[in-house]
Design goal:
By secondary structure, the protein is α/β, with parallel strands linked by helices. It has helices spanning 2-7, 31-35, 47-59, 78-85, 88-91, 121-125, 138-150, 199-212, 230-240, 255-266, 289-295, 299-309, and strands at residues 11-15, 40-42, 63-67, 101-105, 131-133, 155-159, 183-186, 191-195, 217-221, 224-226, 243-246, 276-278. It has a 7-stranded mixed β-sheet, sandwiched between helices. Strand 1 (11-15), helix 2 and strand 2 (40-42) form a beta-alpha-beta unit.
């Protein structure tokens, strides 16, 4: 964010605790000192209000970054996101762009229970006019966020509290990652595993164990769930002939449902087994650690699904 704000003085950051407190998760640490209170703006606990201010500012030539302390709280602002930001370009006949980024953490983050542990990627991906990005590592997070900030359409940028402490190689020089392009995080020949966000780490852990058992899994990181890079997924399935899709969301109308539909439509003849998807249990997330473990995708569930599509278990 700081690199982009140095490049373009039309960019500003607004949200709860982003300034004086350096961000609820210290994401904006030091930014108030560098850019001042006119560009790093603390807000009341009023998501609908400051989301609406952001949409108005974007419609009038600025490039706001609106931070939600968590996307669980974005439900208060969803009218501005869906009915204003996402639809403005279409309803104005192309006269108004809304170059705005709504960003913050999504999905579970430990013992936070039902109202603070929800994954909304598929909700926002359902809406035309939005772009929805979910990075899985530091390198992708930087390149995707820079692309999101420069994009002329509203972008939903979904992070994870549990990944803010992750470390990885991030080049100091300028680079962008194109929106809508998946990445193969691990090459393999026996089964395709598709996921995104922090669940990629679960998929990679499962792939490591599967490799020890003689099964080589290809890991496809969608990175963008609107638009989706269907070609990369389908080309991988044409090579491996098997597909498991993993995501941290409820099963009905999920991203995994969409991926399964597209693969059976465009690569049906290449499938040697039915597609299996792994999602969060179809219930509000509980508080107890044992029940959280039972509800969320994990490496053991991924391994079991792979063995099923390999016909190694019933």
């Amino acid at each position: 964010m700081s690199e982009e704000m140095r490049r373009d003085d039309k960019i500003f950051l607004m949200g709860e605790e982003v300034a004086e407190y350096n961000g609820a998760y210290k994401v904006s640490k030091g930014m108030l000192a560098e850019f001042g209170p006119k560009r790093i703006i603390d807000t009341p606990i009023a998501e609908l209000g400051f989301a609406g201010i952001g949409v108005g500012a974007a419609s009038n030539g600025l490039r706001p970054i609106i931070e939600f302390m968590t996307f669980n709280f974005s439900l208060v602002a969803i009218d501005q996101i869906i009915n204003s930001a996402a639809k403005m370009y279409s309803m104005s006949g192309g006269q108004y762009n809304v170059p705005i980024v709504f960003r913050g953490p999504t999905a579970s983050a430990g013992m936070l229970s039902s109202q603070h542990s929800q994954a909304f990627e598929n909700w926002y991906a359902n809406c035309p006019g939005l772009k929805v990005l979910v990075p899985s590592n530091p390198y992708d997070a930087k390149g995707l966020l820079k692309s999101a900030i420069r994009d002329n359409d509203p972008v939903i940028f979904m992070e994870s509290e549990q990944m803010y402490g992750d470390k990885g190689e991030v080049p100091e020089e300028e680079y962008l990652i194109p929106i809508g392009k998946a990445d193969i995080k691990r090459a393999g020949s026996d089964v395709t595993i598709v996921s995104f966000g922090k669940i990629i780490k679960t998929a990679l852990a499962a792939a490591k164990e599967l490799s020890a058992r003689g099964i080589e899994a290809e890991i496809v990181d969608l990175r963008s769930v609107r638009p989706i890079d269907y070609d990369t997924v389908i080309n991988s399935v044409k090579k491996t002939n098997r597909l498991v899709v993993v995501e941290e969301a409820w099963p009905l109308a999920s991203i995994s449902t969409e991926i399964a539909y597209k693969v059976q439509r465009d690569a049906f003849d290449y499938l040697d087994a039915p597609v299996i998807r792994i999602t969060t249990a179809d219930t509000p997330l509980p508080y107890a650690p044992t029940l959280i473990e039972a509800s969320l995708p994990n490496a053991e569930r991924v391994i079991k699904a792979v063995e099923e599509v390999m016909y190694l278990r019933k």
